[in-house]
């Protein structure tokens, strides 16, 4: 770094997908806002319409909406002239682009600095072979991978490392197989087959680490080489199941100190060797039989685990890393005012336990393969925090659902013993439920541990939960048992099911017996220092640490939890923007949410990391006494309960509403902002993909629609009339079908996906406008609206079908995982920029 | 479930569930923020006279194993945890924490709002006496108030007789103030021929063994409760052979060289404080356990220089003598539990020995 940096370009991530969701947008938002505070102009290239950061003028000086490709990044560099590029916020793809930028010498030509890691590190991260060579050279333990040309080569290696091993061909002709071998016979056959499939008669022999325990460490490093460990994370499921699909615990639950110290040393040496500045996430495999470790992956970029580490520990990871990237050292750095203790060097130590639990897409996609393997299948995750392993685990399980009746699933009871065994050996989504059922049916801890390779400690904890459930069931209305049940994290609802009562009755009984949660700070000093963290979780103990502030206005916002299919990213976009708008109106914003990847989780003034069931929310309300509660529109039961308590409730728009068609033909929507008196047009959208059963959430559309002036004036006049008939102010769409003539269908609220898209296209904070409309503080005639007239914009949803092994799946709004947006001079021009490599996207540019 | 209480001098009582031995115990209440290594902490003799609260809520999850003891007979007075995992199923463990504490006659309580107790200790900012009792009645509080804790901790934990730990390398004498096995482990790894002597050993006793170097070990309690003859021993030894002092040994080394040692308002036990090596500005993390610290202004810069400083509380964490091959650290360089990055100090000690040999 030999010139001062004043302008940084961040490479974004594109559409949310499996293995990469809103955590990157969260990281971009937080890092960009910290960079702003340091006086740095931030620019961003991204094409994700659900991004909170993209187009937000308050933190991003220049936004480029384009697919993230080498050419586009280069074009963006030419346009915005940054001094430095930040490649660690866009996942592996942005690291690969960073490497291309180095190789093309474009950075050197322009004297642009690459932040966060040097060139050789970038090269190694995108090339596992180089990485392994480096690790080998530095003496780090890695699994054996060797090229072989004969059976005797293979036998030679196996004599050293033992079975099982994996054999696969090098440069295969076409189809190639990957074979797991457990003995010499299998090896001989596998080598023969691999040789015959290889163009060059070579095969690769890999040591198999399936069944090993997986441990992940998150560390940070400053430019002078000071390092600290942010978190150690232990995966419940062994290797063989993608880490993203495993339940994860932090702090590590079964690792001894000597083992953890060894991993820490290794993570530090690798981070030092690669000269990484900022965050590094290192994954290890532990052979449970020998206690031997292997380094399996090194990811020096923000990902789902770094966001989990941040929320679990309470350490301001993104703030700290942003400062480290700009050359500050850990020693110099002071934490923001909300931290009682100012030093960034205090290594996080926890007095609570956090669990990350995956969210599955199978409710929306029942045909998808539910077997778990090396391909990630979960779409999001939730976090549960508690003061015991049981409490954190139960809270995480509760957080995966809007309402959890029990820890087992009804249908489980019907499974035969054979099916149970099958599911234990071939793990499926939600395997923890199967494992609980197996314990119920009398399998022992050791048996299950042997079959699943999961540490017996976890079965010990599951057994404790089962015996607690039995105790509850056998002792209805017993205060002592209720106390224990609450202490270990059971919800009022779960207890009510076991007691065969209503949830409300249990809740009342609990309150009558003065059993209320206490809220503890998510404090990374474990109580050693007087922190004033603004992050809390509930438990049932003596001391409550959460007290309402003396803010004049307080709003409680209920988040949408873990990301599910169906435009979930757009929901968190709305929640995030709502928080920012309320803050501008001097509201203290208090959020209850549990998605470690959500942008909203890092925006509110005060955060409760909690499940989102009605009793959880009511407890927070009794402490915070908010003026108003914002609840997602889909939570109708919660809304009723809150309204019954005379609380002022505001519904947030919801996704996925399907309105049936009256006629069929080309679909158009007129969007208008209506303040109760006047309505102003935001122009027409034309939908590309039509849902046979009605208007759903948009999956692909063009904006503004190209229609002839007669048609447009018809739509405008009918639409305006219809929208002005609405009772409350809001942003509405009048829906039309055109089949020869114009058929008005109905009026709906502007869908969230379209709202986040239009906000970027029109450079208009539509969430802020919605809020003001609801507050009757918006006069549409005062709005400055510049409609698009020289460009065509396109929106296209992305679907996770390929990742889930699905073919010929029908495109529908319930299965959207993310989206892309683009613009051009013509429709074709705009469409062809969507998803350059996206089989997962519906568009290949051939529609027009 | 056996009800037990943690009671404090100020009249507070916390109800929990008993585990370990059903004994009544009294000691100073301290908390340790380490997230791993409960076995090493429980067996570390610096906790003689003390009841330890673990802030990490899940304790016991990998049992007790034969390779992580820091003493043969632990002297800790009691163990307070939020949640006890009663397992012995780890790869190398055969004993649960509960079984172990029963064997060693140490009582424990689980189910305590440890965070609330820690917050109370932090706010009180002084040493607090506490008991673990079956009933929190007046009698129990009277007993607690009446109990006087010994200040002869070192005398009680130090070995009464010398013993060898033979090796083929350099001869090192370890003075046992409440020795932590980690020190011996590091010396054994470096092939040292070790002799452990009682803390009462005189300079003559030590020199008669003709050691290449001397280590002053960690130990419990206040350095002021230790006989002046120990200070004289240090003053004499440091001029003759390379000296490495750790923990309580470091505090005594400072006293022997004219510095002052003060009691900290709150004891610090954990492994998450950044410690700066003054000469390199390098930042390390180490296992710490201290109720006392060397007063920074009292260090005579003509005799000693400060080598390590805790960046959070500004305490002196290391000293080196200007004239003699003698140095000390407040933290535990052997880890056990805790980061490994300070183990190099044992190499530094041996290098000092080798340099001395070359000079001879």
UniProtKB/TrEMBL annotation, chain A:
SMART domains for this protein: CPSase_L_D3
Signal sequence span is: none
According to UniProt, this protein's pathway is: Amino-acid biosynthesis; L-arginine biosynthesis
InterPro entries in UniProt:
ATP-grasp, CarbamoylP_synth_lsu_oligo_sf, CPAse_ATP-bd, CPSase_dom, CPSase_lsu_oligo, CPSase_preATP-grasp, PreATP-grasp_dom_sf
**Example GO molecular function term?**
metal ion binding
Name the cofactor(s).
Answer: Mn(2+)
Instruction: State the source organism's domain of life.
Output: Bacteria
Write down the chemical reaction(s) this protein catalyses.
Answer: hydrogencarbonate + NH4(+) + 2 ATP = carbamoyl phosphate + 2 ADP + phosphate + 2 H(+)
Ordered alphabetically, the record's keywords are: Amino-acid biosynthesis, Arginine biosynthesis, ATP-binding, Ligase, Magnesium, Manganese, Metal-binding, Nucleotide-binding, Pyrimidine biosynthesis, Repeat
List the GO biological process terms.
glutamine metabolic process; L-arginine biosynthetic process; pyrimidine nucleotide biosynthetic process
One Gene Ontology cellular component annotation? cytoplasm
Tell me which residues make up the ATP-grasp domain: 132-326
Please tell me whether the keyword Cell wall biogenesis/degradation is annotated for this protein: no
Query: Which Gene3D superfamilies does the entry mention?
Result: 3.40.50.20, ATP-grasp fold, B domain, Carbamoyl-phosphate synthetase, large subunit oligomerisation domain
Please give the family membership noted in the entry.
Belongs to the CarB family.
Q: Which PANTHER family match?
A: CARBAMOYL-PHOSPHATE SYNTHASE [AMMONIA], MITOCHONDRIAL, CARBAMOYLTRANSFERASE FAMILY MEMBER
What is the name of the protein in this document? ATP-grasp domain-containing protein
Organism, per UniProt?
Answer: Paucilactobacillus nenjiangensis
Q: What is the lineage of its organism?
A: Bacteria, Bacillati, Bacillota, Bacilli, Lactobacillales
UniProtKB/TrEMBL annotation, chain B:
Which InterPro entries does the record associate with it?
A: Anth_synth/Amidotransfase (IPR050472), CarbamoylP_synth_ssu (IPR006274), CarbamoylP_synth_ssu_N (IPR002474), CarbP_synth_ssu_N_sf (IPR036480), Class_I_gatase-like (IPR029062), CPSase_GATase1 (IPR035686), GATASE (IPR017926)
EC assignment: 6.3.5.5
Q: In which pathway does it act?
A: Pyrimidine metabolism; UMP biosynthesis via de novo pathway; (S)-dihydroorotate from bicarbonate: step 1/3; Amino-acid biosynthesis; L-arginine biosynthesis; carbamoyl phosphate from bicarbonate: step 1/1
Region ranges (CPSase): 1-172
UniProt key word Ligase: yes
The answer on whether this UniProt entry bears the keyword ATP-binding reads yes
Question: SMART domains per the record?
Answer: CPSase_sm_chain
Which keywords does UniProt give here?
Amino-acid biosynthesis, Arginine biosynthesis, ATP-binding, Glutamine amidotransferase, Ligase, Nucleotide-binding, Pyrimidine biosynthesis
The reaction(s) annotated as catalysed by this protein in its Swiss-Prot or TrEMBL entry are: L-glutamine + H2O = L-glutamate + NH4(+); hydrogencarbonate + L-glutamine + 2 ATP + H2O = carbamoyl phosphate + L-glutamate + 2 ADP + phosphate + 2 H(+)
List of residues binding L-glutamine: 219, 221, 248, 291-292
Going by the entry's taxonomy, the superkingdom of the source organism is recorded as Bacteria
Top-level EC class, please?
ligase
Catalytic residue list: 334
Report the family membership: Belongs to the CarA family.
Q: Subunit structure, briefly?
A: Composed of two chains; the small (or glutamine) chain promotes the hydrolysis of glutamine to ammonia, which is used by the large (or ammonia) chain to synthesize carbamoyl phosphate. Tetramer of heterodimers (alpha,beta)4.
Q: What does this protein do?
A: Small subunit of the glutamine-dependent carbamoyl phosphate synthetase (CPSase). CPSase catalyzes the formation of carbamoyl phosphate from the ammonia moiety of glutamine, carbonate, and phosphate donated by ATP, constituting the first step of 2 biosynthetic pathways, one leading to arginine and/or urea and the other to pyrimidine nucleotides. The small subunit (glutamine amidotransferase) binds and cleaves glutamine to supply the large subunit with the substrate ammonia.
The protein in question is named Carbamoyl phosphate synthase small chain
Q: Which organism is it from?
A: Paucilactobacillus nenjiangensis
Q: What is the lineage of its organism?
A: Bacteria, Bacillati, Bacillota, Bacilli, Lactobacillales
Name of the encoding gene: carA
């Amino acid at each position: 770094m030999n010139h001062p940096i004043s302008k940084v370009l961040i490479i974004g991530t594109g559409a949310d997908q499996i293995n990469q969701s809103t955590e990157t947008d969260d990281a971009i938002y937080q890092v960009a806002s910290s960079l702003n505070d340091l006086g740095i102009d931030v620019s961003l290239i991204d094409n994700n319409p659900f991004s909170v950061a993209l187009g937000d003028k308050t933190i991003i000086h220049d936004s480029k909406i384009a697919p993230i490709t080498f050419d586009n990044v280069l074009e963006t560099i030419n346009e915005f002239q940054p001094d430095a590029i930040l490649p660690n916020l866009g996942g592996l793809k942005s690291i690969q682009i960073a490497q291309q930028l180095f190789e093309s010498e474009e950075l050197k030509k322009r004297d642009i600095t690459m932040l966060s890691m040097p060139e050789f590190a970038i090269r190694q991260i995108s090339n596992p072979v180089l990485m392994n060579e480096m690790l080998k050279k530095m003496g780090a333990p890695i699994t054996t991978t060797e090229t072989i040309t004969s059976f005797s080569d293979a036998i030679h290696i196996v004599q050293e490392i033992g079975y099982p091993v994996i054999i696969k061909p090098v440069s295969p002709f076409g189809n190639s197989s990957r074979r797991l071998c457990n003995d010499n016979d299998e090896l001989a056959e596998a080598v023969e087959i691999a040789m015959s499939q290889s163009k060059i008669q070579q095969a690769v022999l890999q040591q198999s680490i399936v069944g090993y325990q997986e441990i992940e460490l998150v560390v940070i490093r400053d430019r002078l080489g000071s390092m600290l460990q942010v978190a150690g994370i232990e995966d419940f499921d062994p290797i063989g199941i993608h880490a993203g699909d495993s339940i994860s615990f932090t702090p590590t639950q079964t690792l001894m100190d000597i083992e953890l110290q060894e991993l820490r040393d290794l993570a530090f040496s690798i981070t030092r060797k690669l000269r990484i500045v900022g965050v590094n996430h290192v994954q290890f495999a532990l052979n449970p039989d020998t206690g031997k470790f292997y380094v399996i992956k090194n990811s020096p970029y923000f990902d789902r685990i770094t966001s989990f580490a941040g929320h679990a520990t309470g350490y301001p990871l993104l703030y700290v890393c942003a400062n480290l990237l700009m050359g500050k050292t850990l020693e110099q750095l002071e934490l923001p005012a909300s931290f009682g203790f100012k030093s960034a060097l205090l290594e996080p130590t926890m007095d609570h336990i956090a669990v990350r639990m995956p969210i599955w897409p199978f409710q929306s996609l029942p045909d998808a393969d539910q077997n778990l393997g090396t391909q990630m299948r979960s779409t999001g995750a939730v976090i549960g925090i508690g003061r015991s392993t049981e409490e954190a685990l139960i809270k995480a399980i509760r957080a995966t659902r809007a309402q959890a009746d029990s820890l087992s699933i009804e249908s489980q009871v019907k499974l035969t013993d054979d099916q149970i065994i099958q599911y234990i050996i071939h793990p499926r989504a939600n395997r923890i439920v199967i494992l609980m059922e197996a314990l119920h049916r009398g399998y022992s801890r050791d048996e299950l541990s042997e079959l699943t390779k999961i540490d017996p400690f976890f079965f010990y904890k599951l057994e404790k939960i089962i015996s607690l459930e039995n105790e509850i069931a056998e002792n209805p209305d017993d205060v002592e048992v209720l106390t224990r049940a609450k202490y270990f994290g059971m919800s009022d609802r779960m207890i009510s099911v076991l007691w065969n009562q209503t949830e409300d009755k249990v809740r009342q009984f609990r309150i009558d017996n003065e059993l209320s949660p206490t809220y503890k700070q998510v404090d990374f000093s474990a109580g050693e220092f007087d922190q004033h963290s603004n992050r809390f979780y509930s438990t049932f103990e003596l001391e409550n640490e959460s007290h309402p502030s003396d803010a004049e206005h307080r709003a409680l916002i209920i988040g949408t939890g873990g990301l599910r299919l169906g435009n979930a990213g757009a929901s968190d976009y709305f929640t995030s923007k709502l928080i920012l708008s309320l803050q501008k109106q001097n509201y203290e914003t208090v959020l209850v949410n549990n998605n470690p990847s959500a942008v909203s989780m890092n925006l509110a003034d005060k955060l409760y990391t909690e499940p989102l069931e009605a009793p959880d929310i009511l407890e927070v309300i009794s402490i915070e006494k908010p003026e108003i509660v914002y609840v997602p529109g889909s939570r109708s039961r919660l809304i009723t309960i809150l309204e019954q308590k005379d609380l002022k409730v505001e519904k947030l728009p919801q996704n996925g509403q399907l309105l049936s068609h009256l006629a069929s033909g080309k679909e158009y929507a007129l969007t208008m902002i209506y303040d109760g008196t006047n309505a102003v047009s935001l122009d027409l959208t034309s939908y590309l993909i039509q849902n046979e059963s009605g208007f759903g959430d948009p999956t692909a559309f063009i904006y503004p629609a190209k229609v002839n002036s007669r048609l447009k004036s018809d739509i405008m006049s009918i639409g305006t009339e219809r929208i002005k008939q609405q009772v409350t102010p809001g942003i509405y769409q009048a829906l039309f079908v055109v089949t020869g003539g114009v058929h008005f269908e109905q009026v709906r609220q502007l869908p969230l996906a379209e709202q986040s898209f239009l906000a970027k296209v029109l450079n208009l904070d539509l969430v802020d406008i919605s809020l003001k409309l609801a507050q009757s503080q918006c006069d549409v005639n005062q709005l400055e609206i510049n409609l698009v007239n020289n460009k065509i914009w396109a929106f296209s949803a992305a679907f996770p079908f390929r990742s889930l092994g699905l073919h010929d799946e029908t495109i529908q709004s319930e299965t959207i995982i993310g989206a892309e947006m683009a613009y051009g001079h013509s429709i074709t021009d705009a469409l062809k920029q969507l998803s350059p490599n996206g089989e997962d996207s519906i568009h290949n540019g051939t529609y027009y | 479930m056996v009800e037990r209480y943690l009671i404090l001098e100020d009249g507070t009582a916390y109800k929990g569930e008993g585990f370990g031995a059903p004994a009544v115990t009294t000691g100073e209440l301290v908390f340790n923020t380490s997230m791993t290594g409960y076995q090493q902490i429980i067996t570390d003799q610096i906790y003689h006279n003390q009841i330890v609260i673990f802030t990490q809520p899940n304790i016991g999850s990998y049992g007790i194993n034969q390779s992580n003891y820091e003493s043969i007979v632990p002297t800790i007075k009691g163990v307070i945890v939020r949640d006890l995992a009663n397992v012995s199923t780890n790869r190398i463990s055969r004993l649960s924490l509960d079984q172990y504490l029963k064997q060693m006659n140490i009582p424990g309580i689980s189910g305590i709002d440890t965070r609330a107790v820690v917050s109370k200790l932090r706010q009180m900012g002084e040493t607090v006496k506490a008991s673990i009792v079956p009933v929190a009645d007046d009698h129990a509080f009277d007993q607690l108030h009446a109990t006087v804790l010994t200040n002869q901790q070192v005398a009680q934990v130090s070995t009464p007789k010398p013993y060898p730990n033979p090796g083929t390398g350099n001869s090192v004498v370890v003075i046992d103030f409440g020795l932590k096995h980690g020190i011996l482990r590091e010396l054994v790894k470096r092939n040292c021929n070790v002799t452990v002597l009682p803390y009462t050993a005189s300079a003559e006793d030590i020199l008669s063994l003709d050691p290449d170097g001397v280590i002053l070990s960690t130990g419990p309690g206040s350095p002021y409760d230790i006989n002046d003859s120990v200070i004289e021993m240090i003053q004499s030894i440091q001029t003759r052979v390379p000296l490495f002092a750790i923990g309580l040994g470091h505090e005594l080394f400072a006293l022997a060289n004219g510095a002052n040692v003060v009691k900290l308002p709150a004891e610090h036990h954990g492994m998450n404080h950044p410690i700066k090596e003054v000469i390199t500005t390098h930042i390390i993390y180490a296992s710490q356990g201290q109720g006392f610290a060397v007063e920074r202004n009292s260090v005579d810069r003509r005799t000693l220089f400060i080598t390590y400083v805790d960046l959070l509380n500004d305490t002196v964490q290391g000293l080196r003598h200007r004239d003699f091959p003698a140095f000390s650290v407040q933290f535990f360089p052997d880890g056990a539990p805790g980061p490994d990055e300070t183990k190099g100090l044992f190499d530094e000690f041996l290098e000092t020995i080798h340099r001395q040999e070359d000079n001879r």
